[in-house]
Amino acid sequence: MAEAATARRSRITPEREAELYGAVLDLLREVGYDALTMDAVATRTRSSKATLYRQWGGKAELVVKAVRHDKPGAAADIDTGSLRGDLHALLAREDDCTMEQNSALMRGLAMALHQNPDLRQAFREQLIEPETVEFGRILRRAIDRGEVRADCPALDFLVHMMVGGFATRTLLDDQPPTRAFLVSYIDAVILPALGVPVS
Q: Nearest CA to 170 among 91, 102, 90?
């Protein structure tokens, strides 16, 4: 009985959780993953460090859940009736300002992912694998509609292509990713690779 009461007391409201995740993302943008500490999160959010550890276990889990929480709804929920429409609708969920902020955040996390196995594992389990499954559902619908051949060799690389266009925009062009750029990229690169006519 006492354990149930403790569990109830430690539960965080969705509003408070969103506030905590927002603060974590702000700190990530300000200082990066390596310099982000649970002490800093506790101070910024007026929380106890014990509560943070009890709720999330550690920094890697907290950071990944904050990144995941900040993402728009599930990709697989989008169903426009065509693969091109689905991919364009995915882009429409975020404006250019948000994309630029997310791009900067992901650049900051990229090095940390290589150096922190716990972060890499949490990132893979809670972001990469679920996203891959969601994109798989989108592709399955496209195959079922006859838009993409089931044996198309590019099917296994959709997530790679999507991430590549987003991640390399700044690296190669010194420009933030924008919806206009990514729509052009989808039409010029991804859809042709999948054998989907654009016009």
A: 102
